[in-house]
Amino acid sequence: MSFEELEAVLADMGEKPFRAKQIFSWIHEKQVSDFSEMTNLSKVLRETLSKQSFLTTLHPVKVLVSKLDGTRKYLFRLADGNIIESVWMEYHHGNSVCISTQVGCRMGCRFCASTLDGLVRGLSAAEMLEQVYEMRRLMGRRVSNVVLMGSGEPLDNYNNVVRFIRLLTDGRGLGLSARNITISTCGLPDGIYRLAKEGLPVTLALSLHAPDDERREALMPIAKKYSLKEVLPACDFYFEQTGRRLSFEYSLVSGVNDTKEEAQALCTLLGGRSCHVNLIPVNPIKERNYVRSGQQAIADFKNVLEKNGINATIRREMGRDINGACGQLRRSYSETCPERLSVQAGGE
Predict the structure, then answer these.
(1) Which residues, 6+ apart, have CB-to-CB distance to 253 below 8 Å?
(2) How far apart are CA 116 and CA 125, in angstroms?
(3) Could you tell me how far CA 146 lies from the centroid of its own chain?
(4) Contact 144, 135 (CB under 8 A)
(5) What is the DSSP letter of 292?
(6) Where are the beta strands (DSSP E) in the chain?
(7) Which of 13, 230, 234, 319 has a CB 3.0–4.6 Å from the CB of 192, allowing a cystine?
(8) DSSP secondary structure code for residue 147 in this structure
(9) Is 326 an active-site residue?
(10) Angstrom distance (rounded) from CA 13 to CA 234
(11) Rounded distance between C-alpha atoms, residue 9 and residue 49, angstroms
(12) Cβ atoms 290, 282 nearer than 8 A
């Protein structure tokens, strides 16, 4: 519930307005997982809340810790038995968490394990929040940045994602700055236009991965529905409305999209935009035959962009030794424990 919704419910129960602030603080600041922990509420109110409502909680079923960089990858079980994955990453500038927005995904990107079994359902705002809160509780440290870049397409679960962001940024709760939140999208133009009008200055990251429609369609089936002529104007509108520099994600696949000529074509495509290109050495998955680009090819690609005035960085690999890419851990878990994920069969 938003703060206003919580106020309304408590008013209907005959409670004083200050109770909403107390409960909202318990949930979003102190991040308790049971009404019994709300010690400044009367016992009667706590019992009433327990009978009439519930707090969303996640249950860790597996945690992998990278020996390379300390990255932690969590598998969480939802109340309906579905499994999702989340990642804790430590950088010199603070701690970042990468969360899922859906159980599975229907976008079909060829290099991503999240989409191999299709979409089961979207996550609620509470289930997204609880990924952040549970990792924060388990680690005992604050979260500086939140990235909606795990399993799922955020703009395919639009209303819940926007509700999640409003709750996460509410100053009466955790109060994370919207500027410290990144939404990664395959490129759903209608969703981008809607998001631009929400008044939420989050960073928009477009999964681009190719400099033209033909090559992009080979990697991302969704590109067959939405061409770059539709997607890029939506991104430009987002920049105009929010003033937030655009971010373009480009997974480098050897022999597919990593030549100097393709880098030059990318410069032509993005020229004149206030943007940043995030180069990602593709994380191979066993179901596909894609191979990551060599170090020299990656360096040459980056140099072409920079010589043409486009800011580019090579993403630091995190958790490569623990199935760090989206969907890998969840899929490997489903293969070893298929009976535990039987709820997913025949999903939406």
Answers:
(1) 111, 219, 282, 290, 291, 292, 293
(2) 24
(3) 8
(4) no
(5) B
(6) 59-65, 72-77, 83-91, 94-98, 102-104, 119-122, 145-148, 181-185, 203-207, 246-252, 275-281, 311-314
(7) 234
(8) E
(9) yes
(10) 45
(11) 11
(12) yes
Short-list 205, 202, 278, CA closest to 244: 202
CA angle 234, 235, 236 (to 5 degrees): 90
DSSP 297-314: HHHHHHHHHHHTT-EEEE
- Is 47 one of the catalytic residues? no
**CB 267 within 8 Å of CB 311:** no
Contact 244, 204 (CB under 8 A): yes
Structure tokens at 116: 């191999």
Question: How buried is residue 40: exposed, middle or buried, by Cβ count under 10 Å (0-12/13-18/19+)?
Answer: exposed
CB 181 within 8 A of CB 165: yes
Cα separation, 324 vs 341, whole angstroms: 20
What is the Cα–Cα distance from 327 to 119, expressed in whole angstroms?
12
Tokens of 127: 């289930």
Q: Give whole-number Cα distances, 121 to 100, 133, 134, 161, in Å.
A: 11, 21, 21, 13
Phi, psi of 97 (to 5 degrees): -120, 140
Q: Which of 57, 14, 58 is nearest to 35 (CA)?
A: 57
Whose CA is closest to 78, among 51, 53, 100?
A: 100
Helix (H, G, I), strand (E, B) or coil at 246: strand
Choose among 176, 156, 230, 169: nearest CA to 199.
Answer: 169
Residue 182: DSSP 8-state: E
Residues paired with residue 276 on neighbouring β-strands, in sequence order: 247, 311
CA-angle at 105, arms to 91 and 86, nearest 5°:
30
CA atoms lying within 13 Å on the CB side of residue 188 = 16
pTM of the predicted structure, to 2 decimals: 0.90
> What does pLDDT average to in each consecutive run of 10 residues of the chain (348 residues)?
96 95 96 95 96 94 90 95 94 92 90 80 97 95 95 96 98 95 97 98 96 93 95 98 96 92 97 94 64 91 96 80 57 51 36
The answer to whether the Cα torsion of 127, 129, 133, 136 is positive or negative is positive
Residue 319's φ and ψ, nearest 5 degrees, are 65, 30
Report how far residue 252's alpha carbon sits from residue 257's, in angstroms, rounded to the nearest whole number: 6
Name the active-site residue from 7, 85, 127, 130. 85
